[in-house]
């Protein structure tokens, strides 16, 4: 999946200009982190990329197809190739791990099987295999509410993979986790990314982890891309380019 973000602009109704001119591209199989101070526009960018928010200007191309101006059908088809995991996991707490992973299939199912929860043997087997892949083979029937934060993020990763995404958006995936668990989740994400040649775009406040796990950094400040550099760029250069005020530094 090749993702091109070209001069994207977003102004909210209250006239906040969250994105002024964001441009960058991501090649297939890349692990790229978007960094920047609070309010830089990172979440807004991710919401536009996962289709939950429209931009006001510019273009987003997914494998050469215009995403933001596509008709509903094309937009939906592109959206199925994009998975998202969130800081707060966004799981159904009372449902089991298996059920949460299977829920990823609901948008593609006919009304009756979806309402009756009839997913079929193949989907169930795939959900269980994904739970095994993320290290939760023994938690298939466990309600999510009984899991730790790290285990919940593993379920969320399995749910995202259930839709066979080409691009995975990871929106602050380890912000709610302790440092050891956060690192384990990023190691898992990197293993999966490398196995499946998945493209990962991560939004993170943690510069050290972004540098360790990604190959490239995109720095946003006041809605504009102010850095597009290899992840091993010296931290001093990154801080100077992206975090203009000392109090914003991570
Ligand atoms: N729904 C909204 N309506 C109005 N303004 C908004 C809305 N969502 C975000 N903003 C504003 O847009 C700007 C960018 O916000 P955004 O959440 O994208 O930043 P961020 O880089 O993700 O910040 P953080 O790291 O603190 O999560 C901020 O000034 C924010 O107040």
TrEMBL record:
Transmembrane regions listed in the UniProt entry: none
KW Nucleotide-binding (keyword) present: yes
InterPro entries xref list: AAA+_ATPase, ABC_transporter-like_ATP-bd, ABC_transporter-like_CS, ABC_transpr_LolD-like, P-loop_NTPase
Annotated Gene3D superfamilies: P-loop containing nucleotide triphosphate hydrolases (3.40.50.300)
ABC transporter domain sequence ranges: 3-247
A GO CC term assigned to this protein in UniProt: plasma membrane
Annotated Pfam families: ABC_tran (PF00005)
UniProt keyword terms in alphabetical order: ATP-binding, Nucleotide-binding
Coiled coil feature spans: none
Single GO MF descriptor: transmembrane transporter activity
PANTHER family: IMPORT ATP-BINDING PROTEIN, TRANSPORTER, PUTATIVE-RELATED
Name of the featured protein: ATP-binding cassette domain-containing protein
